[in-house]
Each structure stands twice: as C-alpha cells, then as structure tokens.
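Hey, I'm writing a tutorial for new members on how sequence and structure tokens pair up, and I'd like a real worked example in the thread rather than a made-up one. If someone can provide the structure for the chain below, I'll link this post from the tutorial.
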Amino acid sequence: MPKVQIQFHADPREAVSLALRWAREHDLRIVLEQFFPAYRAIEVPEGEPPARVEELSRIDRVALCRAAPDLTATTAHEFVSRNPGSLFRSIGPRDEEGLRESALGGVTEEQETLRIWRELIRNAKSAMHMGATVRNPESNDEERLPKHLHTPGAHELAASGVRILSAAGWNEFKFDDCA
C-alpha cells in the first residue's frame, strides 16, 4: 500500500495554520486531536478554526480527510483505524524544554488521494529550510543530516535560542542556516 512520510521541525501554530490552509485549498475535512489528558477529536468546519482550536488544551495531531471523518473513536489509534486514507500531521510540541520534531504521513490505496498528498508534501518541502546536525548531549556524538527539514517558524525559534529536539529523547538539532 502506498504511503508518504516526512519528519521536520515546525512551530506548532505554523503547523496547524498550514493544515487549515491545505484543507481549504484541497477541499479536505480537518480534525484536530488532543491525546492527553483525555483523547478528543473535533472536526473544524470551514470558517471556524479559531473557536475550535481554543476548545482543546493542546493539539497533538491534525488529520486531513477527503471524506467525512468518523469522530466516534476514543483513542488516537482507533481514530486512525476508523479513518483510513487520512493524512496525519503529528505536531511536535513546544514547551520549556524546546521544540520537538513533527511528522506528516499517511497510507492510502486511492491514487487521487496519494496525488494530493504528494502535492502537499512537495509544496511544503519547497517552503522549508534544509540541513542540520544532530548531537547526543550525553556522548557529544554528532551526525550531519543534510536533508533534515525545518519550517521558517522553526528557524525563527532556533535563531531566538529555543532548543530544537528530536521527537522523543534528548538529541538536539542545530540547523545549518542558524549556526
């Protein structure tokens, strides 16, 4: 089954705004998910994003759906199972530790859906900065990641001194164009 997936750093507000724009431009349905303290999935009707965004204490993932989403799920995993063919944007949180890595991905057998996803990813990548070095702060080992992506918002956060972190764990990134 064809799939798409990319990882990158993005300011969470920027990530949600971009998903809302994609939904408008491609006639997609958008669902905001909160994983903790209790799982919630709410659809954002066109023209109502600010009010719906404020209903959640945080946004952990955004789902873009071509069909009406099934919102009866009680867990994030169940939501994925009930909404096949959705494109999921995991939002890397920004907190007192720093900014965590985000991801965008999905699996579909529908060729038109796959075409839309690839177009969204291609357009997103073209607006992102590329290149970073990842460092393990415990061992000081480093690895160059010339294709690592980050958005303009993540670039601004890094330039202002916000630590840029892996999705999980303690590894830190330094963007090439912020060095």
